[in-house]
Structure formats: structure tokens, C-alpha cells
Amino acid sequence: MELKIPRHIAIIMDGNGRWARRRGMPRIMGHYRGAEVAEEIARACMDIGVEYLTLFAFSTENWNRPREEVDLLFDLLRDYLKNKREDLKNLGIRLRFIGRRDRISRDLKSLMEDLEAYTSDNNRLTVILAVDYGGRDDIVRAVRSVIRNGLKTVDEETFRSYLDLGDVPDPDLLIRTAGEKRISNFILWNLAYTELYFSELCWPEFTKEELLRAIEDFSRRRRKFGRVLDE
Ligand code: IPE
Ligand code: IPE
Ligand code: MG
């Protein structure tokens, strides 16, 4: 079968905690392993010619987790970004972030900005990390920008340009792991016509093979966008 490679894949990386707890380990171990898997999947996406990979790393609702887990998650992100600075550059990965910036510590914020600038000339694969991201928050921030800019009215294309993914094509394929079948306030606007794939695997056990299964499944979908397709 001929594989259709999605231009943009979005992933809700779920099940880190369950994966760890099942093995009698603290939840954070699942997040550590999850970060490694994210890197493996980014490399796989690069190999097969995906242009954009958007990963849900921390939602606006995830602040409601125990303080310790939140702190450890941000420590993990900070260490990871520091350690991977050169790898990302050399691999040709452009790193971008979406989400709120006002609740993130100053040092992490500047690290994020540094990486965005440092990798901005890379063009093999754009990895977009959603950190303190909520789909509703994204839309509300966009509305605020519209008002601030004094616009009297907007159409869909203008409004889109104010969203965090305003300059990025909509995801063709959304993958959610760990058997949950919901969007959990991810990129609501941009998922309007995205094909959905739910994997039973927890994120720490997700593999390139499972990614290819998702893409194979995607390749068989008939994307109609509301039209009638000729039989
Ligand atoms: C996803 O794994 C990672 C984040 C939301 C940060 P979870 O931490 O949600 O894992 P489960 O769903 O509790 O197993
Ligand atoms: C969604 O996963 C957020 C991320 C993957 C970062 P959650 O585990 O937070 O979602 P719910 O609580 O199951 O909806
Ligand atoms: Mg979860």
C-alpha cells in the first residue's frame, strides 16, 4: 500500500503515569521515558518526511496536578532543553513552543526563546512543543489580540493568523496514546478536519512501528472535507 505521509502530525502523549505505576515506579519515571520516546518519534518523523510535529507536553489543566509532579515536569523540560541544544541544531530540527508564557519561570522562558532563535534556520522538521497550552486559552488570547489591534471584524483566515499555530498548516493526523478518546483542550481550532488515531499503547512504550501503523491507517482514510467523493 502506498503510504501518504501527513505533512503535520499532532500527538497527545498520554499514559506516562500509568506506564510507570504499572511497573511499580514513580510517575515521573514515565515522564522521563516519555521524553526519550518524543525524541525517537521526532527522528522517525524526520526520516519519513513529516514537516511539522506538534507534541502536547503540558496543558493549562495540568497545573491542577500535585505540585511535586508539576515541578518535576518543568525540571525535566528544562534539563532536556539544555542538553539537547546542539543535537537539535545538528539534526536540522526547528523547535517552537505554543501556549501561555506568563506562568512559566523566567529562566525556562528564556531557554525556550533561546532555542527557538538558535534553531530558527533549521528546516528539516519543525517540532512544536505545547507547554502550558489550552485550546480555549489559545482562542481567547487570539480574540484579545484582535481587539488590541483594533480590528472591527475578522474572517476565518484573519482570525487563524492570531492563533498560536497561525502560520502552520492544520494537522492532518492526530494521535492520542493510552486508549483515551478525547481532545483534552488541545489545539481545538486547528483540529477541525484532522483525522484521529487512538493507540492503546502508553506513550513511554510508543514506537516507530506504531507511528507507521497510524500513518498506514491514515493513508486509507478518505478525507472528504464535507464533499461527495466520486466512487
Ligand atoms: C501524559 O501522561 C503526560 C502529561 C500529561 C504531562 P500522564 O501523566 O497524563 O499519564 P497518565 O494519563 O496519568 O497515565
Ligand atoms: C493531556 O493529557 C495533556 C497532555 C498530554 C500534556 P491529560 O492526561 O492531562 O488529559 P486528561 O486529564 O486525561 O484529559
Ligand atoms: Mg493522562
Secondary structure topology:
Elements: E1 8-12, H1 16-22, H2 27-48, E2 52-59, H3 67-83, H4 85-91, E3 93-98, H5 106-118, E4 125-133, H6 135-148, H7 156-161, E5 173-176, E6 195-198, H8 208-220
Parallel strand pairs: 1-2, 1-5, 2-4, 3-4, 5-6
Helix pairs in contact: 1-2, 2-3, 3-5
The protein binds 3-methylbut-3-enyl trihydrogen diphosphate (2 copies) and magnesium ion.
Strand content: 15-25%
Q: Name the helicity range.
A: 40-55%
CATH class call: Alpha Beta
What would the principal axes of the Cα set say about the shape? globular
Radius of gyration: 18 Å
Overall structural domain count: 1
> Strand order of the main beta sheet, please?
3-4-2-1-5-6
Order of helices and strands: EHHEHHEHEHHEEH
What is the CATH homologous superfamily assignment? Decaprenyl diphosphate synthase-like
Unreliable segments of 5+ consecutive residues = none
Number of beta strands:
6
Q: Which class best fits the helix and strand makeup?
A: alpha/beta
Annotated CATH architecture: 3-Layer(aba) Sandwich
